[in-house]
Amino acid sequence: MPIYEYEHIGAGCPKGKSFEISQPMSSEKLAVCPECGEPVKRIISLFSVSTPKTNSDLKSHGFTKLVRRDNGVYENVTATGKESKIWDARKPETMPDLKSKIRD
Ligand SMILES: [Zn+2]
Questions:
Q1: Partners of 66 in the beta sheet?
Q2: Same domain, yes or no: 44 and 63
Q3: Interval between CA 21 and ligand 1 midpoint (Å)
Q4: Residues 38 and 69 in one domain
Q5: CA 5 to ligand 1 center in whole angstroms
Q6: CA of 20 relative to ligand 1 center, distance in Å
Q7: Of 2, 11, 18, 57, which residue is 20 to 30 A from 47 by alpha carbon distance?
Q8: Residue 32 contacts residue 40 (beta carbons within 8 Å)
Q9: 74 CA distance to ligand 1 middle (Å)
């Protein structure tokens, strides 16, 4: 489910001035805070406007970035843990461990 960010039009409440909530794509946007019932407005989620730029951003967002180094040889610049840094297409054991990064 996508995460939306809302901001209180007034002073806010124990949830904070702005808060994030996950809602199904199909649901109506909230008009009031579920916590205090004060009016809120939806603000553009930071997540949807910021594109990860650096390799470590990509990594922390769970992306895998491969840089071609040679014919059939890629460097996995976002390798984590036991992943191989170099992916040689001819060596399946060096393939990035994508399964470990796919989460729900
Ligand atoms: Zn509130």
A1: 76
A2: no
A3: 12
A4: no
A5: 13
A6: 11
A7: 11
A8: yes
A9: 49
Residues 6+ apart with CB under 8 A from 61: 52
Show the domain range for 23: 3-49
- C-alpha of residue 95 to centroid of ligand 1, in Å: 47
**What is the CA(24)–ligand 1 centre distance, in A?**
20
Residue pLDDT, tens place only, 49-81: 556 678 888 888 788 888 888 888 999 888 888
Ligand 1 geometric centre to CA of 18 (Å): 8
Q: Do residues 35 and 64 share a domain?
A: no
Residue 92: its pLDDT value, please? 85
pLDDT score at 39: 96
Q: How many domains does the chain have?
A: 2
Q: What is the pLDDT of residues 30-42, one digit of tens each?
A: 999 999 999 999 9
3-state secondary structure at position 50: coil
